[in-house]
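User: Let's play a game. I give you a shape written as tokens, and you guess the letters that built it. Ready? Here's round one.
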């Protein structure tokens, strides 16, 4: 870049703050230390990672990085050469306020909040990143589905007759002169994903990653959201739209994948959980509060809900006396879906390097 440092306006998000950490020397020591601590389980030398990215993006280091909320966006656009958005709208009004803008970077791959045509008319590049952390969330959703469908938690390590007897089972061998020996413990309650119906509530960035993997498992994919996909998108993701009650009634697996706000909190309430097919399972790698906890417990006690898996808990850290832990068909994990941390770091690295290339041309 020639002259003064580039100005990059960034939607303030807990992950996009890394752009400030990497590129803006004005970042507070407290924020640097906080991110180094957060990354330490997977990336013990966070400082080295920052230096690595700065070298790859030397054209824009250092930069003035301005983190903004929705109501602060317009006031910060005049000097901006680049704008990074996850949910902030970028249209004709925003472009008119940003005469120096060269690139709009979506923190994701769905451009519904960006007027791509208006950007093209202005010569503003629109960039995206297919987030590895979202892929990891989808992988975790399937890990939970497989844990439930294959009874992985209660059967893991159970390989002896003594163990079978201790859990109340009785060893009765099959007549292997005629039959296979498979499932010698006679364990029931297993499910197959192939041929089952998955209903995804919210086919956004993570929902689409789940849909792609569901198709690979041979599952029938239904979805619901306020605005249906285009026909081409439905073909791309092998997904069919349903009203929410229809999705709940047809699905063997229900996956709520929505942001948490006033309109989505408790979206799966007592009435809607009752609409689910009896014995169907819920897998949630989004926010626990999308599901009414009391109604969920009632559904598990009655057996109407056949299984439940949750990654982000109602309280974090939770309690060892949580009633959800008392059900043998419930799998809980401690907010691990987006991990390991280097998923998010690779996303941010790709984003920063892409901006450097766009602004240096």
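Assistant: Ready! My guess for every position:
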């Amino acid at each position: 870049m020639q002259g003064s440092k580039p100005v990059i306006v960034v939607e303030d998000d807990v992950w996009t703050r890394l752009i400030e950490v990497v590129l803006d020397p004005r970042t507070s020591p407290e924020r640097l230390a906080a991110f180094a601590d957060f990354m330490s389980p997977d990336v013990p030398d966070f400082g080295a990672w920052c230096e690595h990215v700065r070298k790859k993006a030397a054209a824009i280091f250092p930069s003035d990085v301005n983190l903004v909320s929705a109501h602060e966006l317009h006031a910060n656009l005049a000097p901006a050469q680049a704008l990074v958005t996850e949910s902030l709208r970028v249209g004709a009004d925003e472009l008119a306020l940003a005469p120096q803008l060269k690139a709009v970077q979506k923190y994701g791959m769905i451009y519904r909040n960006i007027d791509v045509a208006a950007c093209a008319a202005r010569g503003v590049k629109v960039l995206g990143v297919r987030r590895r952390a979202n892929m990891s969330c989808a992988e975790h959703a399937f890990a939970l589905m497989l844990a439930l469908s294959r009874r992985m938690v209660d059967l893991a390590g159970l390989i002896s007759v003594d163990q079978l007897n201790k859990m109340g089972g009785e060893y009765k061998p099959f007549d292997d002169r005629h039959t296979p020996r498979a499932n010698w413990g006679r364990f029931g309650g297993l499910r197959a994903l192939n041929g089952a119906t998955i209903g995804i509530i919210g086919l956004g960035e993570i929902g689409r990653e789940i849909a792609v993997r569901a198709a690979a498992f041979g599952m029938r994919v239904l979805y619901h959201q306020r605005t249906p996909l285009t026909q081409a998108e439905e073909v791309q993701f092998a997904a069919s739209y349903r009203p929410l009650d229809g999705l709940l009634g047809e699905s063997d697996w229900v996956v709520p994948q929505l942001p948490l706000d006033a309109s989505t909190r408790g979206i799966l309430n007592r009435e809607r959980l009752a609409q689910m097919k009896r014995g169907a399972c819920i897998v949630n790698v989004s926010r626990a509060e999308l599901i009414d906890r009391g109604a969920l417990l009632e559904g598990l006690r009655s057996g109407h809900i056949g299984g439940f898996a949750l990654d982000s808990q109602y309280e974090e850290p939770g309690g060892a006396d949580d009633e959800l832990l008392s059900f043998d068909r419930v799998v809980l994990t401690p907010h691990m879906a987006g991990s390991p941390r280097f998923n998010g770091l690779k996303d941010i690295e790709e984003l920063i390097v892409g901006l450097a290339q766009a602004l240096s041309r």
